[in-house]
Design a protein that fits this description.
The complex is a heterodimer of chains A (121) and B (111). With 121 residues, chain A is mainly beta. Chain A has strands at residues 4-7, 10-13, 19-25, 32-38, 45-51, 57-58, 67-73, 76-81, 90-102, 105-112, 116-120. In chain A, strands 2, 4, 5, 6, 9, 10 and 11 form a seven-stranded mixed β-sheet that branches. A four-stranded antiparallel β-sheet of chain A has the order 1-3-8-7, with no helix packed on it. Chain A is elongated. Chain A starts with a strand and ends with a strand. By secondary structure, chain B is an all-beta fold. In chain B, the strands form two sheets. Chain B has a five-stranded mixed β-sheet, with no helix packed on it. In chain B, strand 5 and strand 6 (61-64) form a beta hairpin. The chains are: A mainly beta (121), B mainly beta (111). The interface between A and B is medium-sized, with 30 and 24 residues.
Chain lengths: 121, 111
């Protein structure tokens, strides 16, 4: 199956600094990528939809100036957490969308990265 | 996207079938039923999806009721490695279609 990687897998930073997380689709091109956030013992919450060559679409309540998303190529999207604070500590997961075809049917499948655990001190 | 309802947790003995139910009574005609699972501290993994027919792949089977208001994911022979949170999601199939994760079912497979 398709592989999505994230880098770094784990990051610890001081409050007030910015952190960049990369999401790459390794063996397919993805015009659409998604960024999720997951707090402990909670479900994944979609933060934004990242579209190659255009601005990201943010979910309600997600600050676009704090969570900067860049989707510069069909295989790379980045999420930058600006001026991070302890409440931004979370598990950040990206996914890349790919159209699959089998048995005469096509469908959209999202492939998820392994996640990045951010801890802000 | 339609909302889904799943039991919070389930237990299953290793080697037995795990049957995970999901209610999606407000599903619309163009929405598929997707199942993903998340093993602790990893990204979600796709399992299976379907529209109205039952589906089977190497991982699981998906049984969708005729009125499409509910479905059941079946893991035929559960192993300890199947311990995870299982998410039932309804969504349309475009590449920009969002997946809305509910709370899922925490499946614990025991010896």
């Amino acid at each position: 199956g398709a592989v999505v990687s994230q880098h770094p897998s784990r990051v610890i930073c001081k409050s007030g600094t910015s952190v960049k997380i990369e999401c790459r689709s390794l063996d397919f091109q993805a015009t659409t990528m998604f960024w999720y956030r997951q707090f402990p013992k909670q479900s994944l919450m979609l933060m934004a939809t990242s579209n190659e060559g255009s601005k990201a679409t943010y979910e309600q309540g997600v600050e676009k100036d704090k969570f900067l998303i860049n989707h510069a190529s069909l295989t790379l999207s980045t999420l930058t957490v600006t001026s991070a604070h302890p409440e931004d500590s979370s598990f950040y997961i990206c996914s890349a969308s790919s159209n699959r075809l089998a048995g005469g049917q096509s469908w959209n499948e999202q492939f998820f990265g392994p996640g990045t655990r951010l801890t802000v001190l | 996207d339609a909302k889904t309802t799943q039991p919070t947790s389930m237990d299953c003995a290793e080697g037995r079938a795990a049957n995970l139910p999901c209610n999606h009574s407000t599903i619309s005609g163009n929405e598929y039923v997707y199942w993903y699972r998340q093993i602790h501290s990893q990204g979600p993994q796709y399992i299976i999806h379907g529209l109205k027919n039952n589906e089977t792949n190497e991982m699981a089977s998906l049984i969708i009721t005729e009125d499409r208001k509910s479905s059941t994911l079946i893991l035929p022979h559960a192993t300890l490695r199947d311990t995870a949170v299982y998410y039932c999601i309804v969504s349309s199939t475009g590449t920009a279609s969002k997946l809305t994760f509910g709370t899922g079912t925490r499946l614990q497979v025991t010896l």
